[in-house]
Amino acid sequence: MIDNSNIPDTLDISNLIDYIKILKLTDPSDKPISRIDQLYASDNTYIAIDAINTKRVNSYSADGSYLKTLMEVGSDKKQSLNVTDCYQNEKNEVIIYDYAQMMLTVFNPDLSVKKVIQGKNLFHYNHIASIPGTEEYVGYASYNLDNAYLQGDEKNPSNLDVLNSKLDLTKKILTYPSKFEGVTLITASKSFFPYKDSLRFFRTYDPYIYNISKNQIERRYKVLYSKGNFPSDFLESIVANHLKEFKETGSRSYPLQVIYQYCSGYTCPENWLESDSVICLSSINFLDRSTSITNTVVLNQAKKRTVLNAGTFVAKNDFKLSFPQFKAYDKYNNEFLASCTGNQLKKRLYKGSSLINLQDIVDDSFYLIKVKFKPKQ
After folding, report:
1. Model confidence at 12, in pLDDT bands (50, 70, 90)?
2. What does residue 81 show for φ and ψ, rounded to 5 degrees?
3. How far apart are CA 49 and CA 51, in angstroms?
4. Which candidate among 72, 96, 307, 360 keeps its CA 20 to 30 Å from the CA of 52?
């Protein structure tokens, strides 16, 4: 249970932190990124994707030095037409998903290109991930991605599909009534998190965190809030009575206004990161005219589970830092990762912090904040 009845603006978690390290990412002038939408850590390598502005995927060494640009939008056949998603599989391969071409580019651990897989059908998915222990993939499609007609089954649209090694559809997992196809809803920047020999799957408006393994998909966790839980049948209980409004696309802002109006007061998971002893969860809170984010740290200790919530976590005592939202988990170093620009970092450091000298911070550069929590008590 997450008590969101009275969320503090900040919460000091200094006593939970083993260490914090700050790492500057160095970009060349001709291949910069201007935001980090997704972040991944492999063995001695970091991958950052800017899916909105530069539409570029850059890689960095363990010391933050630029290695290479893995993909960027361009007209060349070797380049992507639409960089929307990037992830790493259990083999430590980097895989970049091109939404426009239904194409996966697979990179070896040394970041050389291994192969390119292009589906014969242009199915549209927000996110794709490899299913551990198999050659299969799983794709998540929001309600406004019209896949049913491409799949030859307009009566049976699906949010979650299994694809074979050639990206052919083999199984629909989470189907929904066709009357809801085309509704506009908010989609998170990622929907999958690899955990050991399985995948965690999560989506907005759904209280469940699913586990996808070689043989099955099952509900692993249910995220409950003290107030504002989305009903498990939110399509029928919230959307069905306002279908016309949710499908209206007359102006860019109108769909968001509808979402804020009819989902106001509800909260649901927005991102999920997990280690053996710590879960870092962020939740999206729907307000009348906007949204806000609540951050949660769940400590799975030896004899109890502790749940901590705040708008922002801080470490005032030892490290003197206000944390950005965690975006990734580095399983190789057991570190949770956040990112921000140098200008933002200056504002997040408290006076007297020994983590980095203010004069050494470059405003327009990106920095990783690497946090290791103390082991189980």
Report:
1. very high
2. -95, -20
3. 6
4. 360
Beta-carbon count within 10 A of 370 CB: 19
**Burial (Cβ within 10 Å: 0-12, 13-18, ≥19) of residue 84:** buried
Whole-angstrom distance, CA of residue 201 vs CA of residue 110: 28
Contact between 184 and 146 under an 8 Å Cβ cutoff? The reply is no
By residue range, what is the domain housing residue 243? 10-373
Q: Express each pLDDT in 234-274 by its tens digit.
A: 999 999 999 988 887 666 677 888 999 999 999 999 999 99
Please give the tally of structural domains in the chain.
1
Residues 326-345: pLDDT tens digits? Answer: 999 999 999 999 999 999 99
- The amino acid sitting at 89 is N
Backbone CA torsion sign across 257, 227, 313, 269: negative
Confidence of residue 147 (pLDDT cuts 50, 70, 90): low
Distance CA 169, CA 152 (A): 11
Q: Give the CA-trace dihedral at 185, 190, 193, 199, to 10 degrees.
A: 50
Strands 291-300 and 305-310: antiparallel
Does some domain include residue 181?
yes
CA 331-337-343 angle, to 5 degrees, is: 160
Structural domain includes residue 104? yes
What is the maximum alpha-carbon separation in the chain? 63
CATH number of the domain residue 343 falls in = 2.120.10.30
- Total-model pTM: 0.91
The sign of the CA dihedral 297, 300, 301, 304 is: positive
Alpha-carbon gap, residue 90 to 28, rounded angstroms: 30
Say if 5 falls within a structural domain.
no
In percent, how much of the chain has pLDDT > 70?
93
Angle at 208 between CA 202 and CA 213, to 5 degrees: 65
Contacts of 140 (CB under 8 A, 6+ apart): 125, 126, 127, 128, 159, 160, 191, 192, 201, 203
CB atoms within 10 A of CB 117: 15
Residue 369 lies in a domain: yes
